[in-house]
Design brief:
Blueprint: H1 5-10, H2 16-25, H3 29-38, E1 41-46, E2 49-57, E3 65-68, H4 77-90, E4 93-96, H5 103-113, E5 118-120, H6 122-134, E6 138-143, E7 146-151
Parallel strand pairs: 3-4, 4-5
Antiparallel strand pairs: 1-2, 6-7
């Protein structure tokens, strides 16, 4: 079974993708490998584009992360796809923060259109699905002079 990048760097090897990112970032490949091994840097990629690897973390360049997503108020997949096209041109990473509409379909379509690594927040969907099924959620109530989160 193939080893993960973190397993390889922890064993003292520097995989090709780490070398490529180090060259692009202008950092020493051994130093980047040690930072990955210690959790101070990570490699990110879009599985559809395995050659486009990026890294975030200590000592690396700042990345442009584009946040997009539908809401319970506005669900327009076409508007989100236009944002994906703009992100593909100008961004480094993409985060889908959708909370409205058919979240599975929205996520699949956004990932399908993106040329960037895409992050999602599955806990949003879990909370929304739970709320729909059980009518649960959270409310804020005032106690003393502080606001506290209380489960219903």
């Amino acid at each position: 079974m193939a080893k993960t990048v973190i397993e390889e760097v922890r064993e003292g090897r520097v995989p090709d993708e780490v070398k490529a990112v180090a060259r692009r970032e202008g950092v020493n490949e051994g130093k980047l490998a040690r930072r990955i091994a210690s959790g101070r840097a990570i490699l990110i990629r879009n599985v559809k584009l395995p050659d486009k690897v990026s890294a975030v973390g200590l000592g690396l360049t700042t990345k442009v992360n584009v946040n997009i997503g539908t809401s319970s108020e506005v669900v327009s997949l076409e508007a989100e796809l236009e944002k994906v096209r703009i992100a593909n041109k100008w961004g480094d990473t993409l985060m889908d923060l959708s909370t409205g509409g058919d979240l599975d379909e929205i996520r699949r379509t956004i990932i399908g259109e993106s040329k960037l690594p895409v992050g999602t927040v599955p806990t949003y969907q879990a909370f929304i699905d739970s709320f729909k099924k059980k009518g649960g959620g959270a409310t804020l109530r005032r106690m003393s002079s502080l606001m506290w989160l209380r489960d219903i």
